[in-house]
Amino acid sequence: MAAPLTVSARAAVVGAGPAGLMAAEVLAGAGIAVDVYDAMPSAGRKFLLAGIGGLNITHSEPHAAFLSRYGDRARVLAPMLEAFGAQAVRDWTEGLGIDTFVGSSGRVFPKEMKAAPLLRAWLHRLRERGVRLHMRHRWLGWEADGALAFDTPGGRTAHRHDAVVLALGGASWPRLGSDAAWVPWLAGRGVRVEPLVPANCGFEIDWSPHLRERYAGQPVRAVTLSMSDDQGDWCRSGEFVVSDYGVEGSLIYAASARLREAIARHGRAELRLDLAPGLGLERVARELAWPRGSKSMANHLRARIKVDGVKAGLLREIVPAADFQDPVRLAAWVKSLPLTLRAPRPIDEAISSAGGVAFEGMDEHGMLRALPGVFCAGEMLDWEAPTGGYLLTACLASGRWSGLGAARWLARRNGA
Ligand SMILES: Cc1cc2nc3c(=O)[nH]c(=O)nc-3n(C[C@H](O)[C@H](O)[C@H](O)COP(=O)(O)OP(=O)(O)OC[C@H]3O[C@@H](n4cnc5c(N)ncnc54)[C@H](O)[C@@H]3O)c2cc1C
């Protein structure tokens, strides 16, 4: 049965996450009436969850380094991030009355380390500018006549708009709204969508029950991880967490794209862990060669090279017992302990997803070539980046870019 049609000369934004809300902001700023639709009872659920970790909105490093975080998508994202980069994100946040600060790692946060005040101020400003928010409107694709179909508490409805921005998110944490149900609807209309896969995710390692029971949940601080793969060498210092299923945390997320690809290609990926990055191999061997007398090996490791707790637990887990008696061999393990990762954790646990709408199917203003008048933004596009504020920055920048693209397209259509 055909759904009742509400004809309206307005722009629609589907998805009230940061990308969609930014698209709505620029469309409203261009004098266009905007309806924002979202399946959830309230806007920005994932944005609010990001606030629990302090809401890392962007990063203060130089622009070239910032851009390099997007890997081989840096080139296509560059125009968006040059128009709305890290400083613009800070200015925009402060324009909403939320002060920001740069943390010791260069990451940028709102002073209060919360998302709710920012989201509240943003939604208030959008409503003041006439943006209409329609919650509990689950987009179902298109009706035969091109109208957007929605499932609402009052039943199925359809709305026609002059331009549409889709900002439906990726596929991580689907319970917050971004469930990727849109993939077949776009693919069915000739839009190329790369498979959605976990990004910034944990990885599985076959830990022994002992390691799991004793150390799951513990951070492994001030270490260096490295790997070599078809793309070359990768090496980064920082911290990660031993979890009951394997490993997670910022250092792991930073390598997650390469780890995921290595596992897809070879069935496993190997990281090398340096437990004493401040000491060279020879120095570690010299320290370990000191006579330990009646001291236990645990005390010896702690006293000579500051390896204890979960770090010592990892050594015990992986190193053959005999090598603990040989300072040279043990030093080699301390400096390069192999961690064999066998699978990424499922996408619904990941911080973000990779894959999505291919840029090749979009014009330079964010419009889908297969669907004139339909634009895309945010995490549903085929790019990925590590944690560090790069995700939100690119979501905001691409939301702005596609909102401006839609406004420009509407202006052209109306002969302006
Ligand atoms: C735990 C966690 C912590 C994070 N922390 C950070 C951080 O500190 N810094 C950072 O940069 N990034 C962080 N991120 C990532 C960041 O939150 C996301 O990249 C960002 O929210 C994506 O924005 P988006 O607007 O593209 O999509 P989303 O925020 O996912 O919004 C998409 C919206 O579309 C709606 N939608 C989907 N399908 C439909 C449909 N069929 N009909 C109607 N509505 C629909 C959803 O309900 C949702 O509201 C974090 C993510 C997680 C999970």
Please describe what this structure looks like.
Helix content is 36%, strand content 24%. The strands form five sheets. A seven-stranded antiparallel beta sheet has the order 18-17-14-15-16-13-19. Strands 7-3-2-11-21 form a five-stranded parallel beta sheet, covered by helices on one side. The relative contact order is 0.19. A hairpin with a 2-residue loop joins β14 and β15. With 416 residues, the protein is an alpha+beta fold. It contains 15 helices and 21 strands. The N terminus is likely disordered. The longest helix is centred in the C-terminal third of the chain and has 24 residues. α1 packs parallel to α15 and α11 crosses α14. The structure holds flavin-adenine dinucleotide (FAD). Flavin-adenine dinucleotide binds next to α1, α2, β8 and α15.
Q: Quick gist of this model?
A:
This protein is of the alpha+beta class and 416 residues long. The chain has 15 helices and 21 strands.
- Backbone structural class: alpha+beta
* Total DSSP E strands: 21
Count of alpha and pi helical runs: 15
Mean pLDDT rating:
96
Unreliable stretches, pLDDT < 50, 5 or more residues? 1-8
Tell me about the largest β-sheet. Answer: 7 strands, antiparallel
Task: Based on the model shown, name its key terms.
416 residues, alpha+beta, 7-stranded antiparallel sheet, 5-stranded parallel sheet, 15 helices, 21 strands, elongated, disordered N terminus, binds flavin-adenine dinucleotide
